[in-house]
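Figure 3 (text version): structure tokens given as input.
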């Protein structure tokens, strides 16, 4: 049975909606003002919320903002995560601007008083179906990405990384992920996103090293038509594309100082400006960054802004090299072997203990990425039983 919360300072309206929805089989709770409604919404596990706009103590727009944005706990506890529940605004004093503002903040819909019975029931049905669809989409996305977002291993170093991810993922804290190439920094970023309240929103990745310095600002912040040669139409940047979700700045140590300055401003003010525009655009993104460089050394050399480093380095996570966790190689080989054989549509091949030992004895300059390549090469070129000789020959 779906649970609906109705927040309205008019008792007659509250009771009328309650009577209608309960007749249709919904479980309905009531709150007489925004403050009580906010408390109920954060603790009640509701599937849908109806809220009036004009109310004492806290009006509906303030309530909507509080529900849709993370907020610090006044008691000093953990921050309150955004409430992932459709909110329908209702008002007898509505105008177009109010309706548009409500939808921009995150309302599912906006209906006027006096309430139309059919409109109320249709909106309720559609909003609940929308929530179910979002949940199914989130589950499907997690299934699709789970193959590339698994942290394989039981070594102390990787167990520690996994523990930090579990603690940090549900928060809004920015994270700086460091480690050598091929260690799995992107996997850490994906796990942080998937474990957050933003998991049903996009995770947008930017490889700062792969974008020319003259284009990085356009890539991050977007541009207006005609702002430079080749700008044939308005284009949203990665910050806008990630609005409500997560922005992953990979290889941020390779970002130009000019772009660093604009990223710092975006983090400070939660707004960006497209290239060629003077209009600010509000954005709500959680930023994760990664680098294989020693940023304190880059700061000392004048190649990275110290203030940006401290903005991003709220939670540091260092991903260890494969040479530091060789006890995980048997698990990784088994995982990659099953994955590759399925992709290649061939029978799973077994690795002899001596072959595993030969892999553990190697020096892995390319880390996890290199190991996967070697396992794929062995599966394709070796026989049904992979031996130490195969490793020495093909690896």
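Below: residues designed for each position.
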């Amino acid at each position: 049975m779906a649970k609906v919360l109705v927040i309205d300072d008019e008792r007659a309206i509250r009771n009328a909606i309650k009577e209608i929805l309960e007749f249709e089989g919904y479980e309905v709770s009531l709150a007489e003002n925004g403050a009580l409604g906010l408390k109920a919404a954060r603790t009640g596990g509701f599937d849908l919320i109806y809220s009036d706009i004009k109310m004492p103590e806290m009006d509906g727009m303030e309530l909507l903002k509080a529900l849709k944005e993370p907020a610090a706990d006044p008691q000093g506890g953990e921050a309150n995560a955004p409430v992932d529940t459709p909110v329908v605004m209702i008002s007898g004093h509505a105008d177009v601007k109010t309706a548009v503002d409500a939808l921009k903040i995150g309302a599912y819909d906006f209906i006027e008083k006096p309430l139309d019975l059919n409109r109320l029931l249709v909106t309720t049905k559609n909003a609940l179906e929308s929530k179910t669809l979002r949940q199914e989409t989130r589950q499907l996305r997690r299934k699709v990405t789970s193959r590339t977002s698994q942290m394989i291993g039981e070594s102390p170093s990787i167990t520690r990384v996994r523990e930090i991810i579990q603690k940090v993922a549900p928060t809004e804290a920015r994270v700086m992920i460091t480690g050598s190439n091929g260690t799995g920094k992107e996997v850490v970023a994906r796990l942080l996103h998937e474990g957050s309240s933003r998991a049903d929103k996009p995770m947008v990745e930017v490889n700062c090293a792969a974008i020319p310095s003259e284009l990085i600002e356009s890539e991050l912040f977007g541009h207006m038509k005609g702002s430079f040669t080749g700008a044939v139409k308005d284009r949203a940047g990665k910050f806008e594309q990630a609005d409500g979700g997560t922005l992953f700045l990979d290889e941020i140590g390779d970002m130009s100082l000019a772009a660093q300055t604009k990223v710092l401003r975006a983090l400070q003010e939660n707004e960006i400006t497209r290239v060629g525009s003077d209009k600010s655009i509000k954005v709500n993104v959680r930023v994760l960054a990664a680098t294989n460089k020693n940023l304190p050394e880059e700061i000392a050399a004048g190649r990275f802004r110290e203030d940006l480093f401290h903005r991003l380095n709220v939670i540091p996570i260092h991903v260890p090299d494969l040479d530091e966790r060789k006890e995980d190689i048997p698990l990784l080989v088994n995982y990659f072997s099953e994955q590759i054989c399925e992709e290649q549509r061939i029978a799973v091949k077994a690795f002899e203990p001596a072959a595993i030992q030969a892999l553990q004895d190697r020096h892995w300059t390319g880390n996890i990425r290199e190991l996967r390549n070697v396992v794929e090469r062995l599966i394709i070129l070796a026989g049904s039983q992979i031996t130490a000789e195969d490793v020495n020959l093909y690896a």
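DSSP finds 16 helices and 14 strands in the chain.
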